[in-house]
Amino acid sequence: MKLKYVTVTGADNSLKPKELNLIAKNFPFVEFGILLNPIKTGTERFPTFDWIYELNQNLNLSGHFCGAVCKELVYDNKIFNYDIFRKFNRIQLNFSPYKVPINLIYYLNQMPEKQWIFQIGKDNKDELIQEALNQKINFGILFDQSGGKGILSQKWPNLKENVFCGYAGGLGPENIEEELKIIADIVGDQEIWIDMEGKIRDLEKLSIAKVNQILEASLQYV
User: Fold this and answer.
1) Tens digits of per-residue pLDDT, 136-195?
2) With contact defined as beta carbons under 8 Å apart, do 23 and 211 qualify?
3) pTM for the predicted model, two decimal places
4) pLDDT tens, 4-60?
5) What is the Cα–Cα distance from 117 to 28, expressed in whole angstroms?
6) DSSP readout, 170-214?
7) Burial class of residue 138 (count of CB atoms within 10 Å of its CB; 0-12, 13-18, 19+)
8) How far apart are CA 189 and CA 63, in angstroms?
9) Is-contact 161 147, C-beta < 8 A?
10) What are phi and psi of 138, to 5 degrees?
11) Which of 52, 167, 174, 197 has its CA 20 to 30 A from that of 64?
12) Which residue in 188, 200, 197, 172 sits closest to 2, CA to CA?
């Protein structure tokens, strides 16, 4: 198994952008997942746009579209605040609770410079994945059977053939080494990424110590 990214999700205004720069300097494979929902902007885990603008463009950044803004993109083909949007190389659509129309793929294909991430819950949306493969869009899928609730998977899914895959759900400092071994046995020599959020926080703030612990444990797979 090779880890392309270890995605750390939920950085917000409680940290200074330069703190993310230092983490990335020590661990260049880290990706910062930035949660985006206009209704929650400026609250815990959802940074302000001004904070996002300050982020170094050389960081690995993914924008995670949540709630109403994800619904708008999926159903109405709307993009909010394009200046913010273009800060990210990868865009994750947290649509696991929603039924997703196939015509979404045509829309996403108009922006080939982005890699799109489909958050896959219990409904793995095989039809959507197959259409994305047929249309040759740049995409990956994130397995998160808990739908973003941070519950550890009882059985990690197998890879989807010819698809860049990521794994999330309940990963944290207390189990990362054991779970990486389990995932490695499943994926073999393939390249993947992992993502975590809830278990790398202290008092509802992203913990730099826990993030560093996760990244140290991941080094052997990079």
Assistant:
1) 999 999 998 765 566 777 789 999 989 999 999 999 999 999 999 999 999 999 999 999
2) yes
3) 0.92
4) 999 999 999 999 999 999 999 999 999 999 999 888 999 999 999 999 999 998 999
5) 20
6) S--TTTHHHHHHHHHHHHTT-EEEEEE-GGGEETTEE-HHHHHHH
7) middle
8) 27
9) no
10) -85, 105
11) 174
12) 188
Q: Are 139 and 116 in contact (CB under 8 A)?
A: yes
Query: Residue 49's closest CA among 94, 8, 17, 95?
Result: 17
Q: Which amino acid is at 40?
A: K
Collapse the DSSP code of 217 into the 3-class scheme (helix H, G, I; strand E, B; otherwise coil) and give the result: helix
Tokens of 19: 């703190």
| Per-residue H/E/C for 65-119 | ECHHHHHHHHHHCCCCCHHHHCCCCEEEECCCCCCCCCHHHHHHCCCCCCEEEEE
Q: Is 50 exposed, middle or buried (0-12, 13-18, 19+ CB in 10 A)?
A: exposed
Coil, helix or strand for 142? strand
Residue 161's identity, in one-letter code, is E
Strands 30-36 and 164-168: unpaired
